[in-house]
Amino acid sequence: MKWERIPLGPLQTNCYVLSSKEKECIVFDPGSEGAKLNALIQSRGLKPLAVLLTHAHFDHIGAVDEVRERWNIPVYVHKKEKDWLASPELNGSHYFQAGPIHAGPADEYIETGKPLTIGPFTLRVSHTPGHSPGSVSFYHEETRAVFSGDVLFKEGIGRTDLPGGDHQLLLKSIHDHLLELPEDTLVLSGHGPETTIQDEMDHNPFLNGF
């Protein structure tokens, strides 16, 4: 199995496509530019099985409906953010100048604390709130990667000044659910380059001394 990072939209939000040798795939956080993303998926000869959302901020959901409708696949989100897809006030687009962004309701609600299996993919799902109330992180053991959304970045952490943000809770989420992963785990963040758990333990100034 392999993953591909596809930065999309004005904020260059990282969408990820995790694919198997049989060309089945899962799409994480299709934030914008749905036509471009669908064309890329088609050019790779992939068959999407689901859209998984690390959280429902506007820059992570802008192409949800285009991808869902093109491939006729379900969208998963944590139940704490089930109303965010349709609400510019909740998903944050109301506060920015890009205009209101919304999507249809999710098809499935993510259950944390147990494996999520979709086709050939099995992911360990952890509830990692702090950046937003329903933020989740998806750990894929086979590729030794965690899709962390806006929880943890290379030498940074998610912002907590938007509605529902909580700085101390975010640090606790990182400590309890991400730093306990194997040190060579790749951290695939919602923005910017990948990093590893080891590198963040050693160099992330927000985590020193926590």
TrEMBL record:
Keywords for the protein's UniProt record, in alphabetical order: Hydrolase, Metal-binding, Zinc
The protein's name is: MBL fold metallo-hydrolase
| Pfam families attached to this UniProt entry | Lactamase_B (PF00753)
CDD domains recorded: metallo-hydrolase-like_MBL-fold
Domain Metallo-beta-lactamase: residue ranges:
12-191
Origin: domain of life? Bacteria
Q: Gene3D superfamilies from the xrefs?
A: Ribonuclease Z/Hydroxyacylglutathione hydrolase-like
Coiled coil ranges (UniProt) are none
Known InterPro entries for this protein? MBL_Glyoxalase_II (IPR051453), Metallo-B-lactamas (IPR001279), RibonucZ/Hydroxyglut_hydro (IPR036866)
GO MF term list: hydrolase activity; metal ion binding
Does the record bear Zinc in its keywords?
Answer: yes
Do you know which SUPFAM superfamilies this protein is assigned to? Metallo-hydrolase/oxidoreductase
Required co-factor? Answer: Zn(2+)
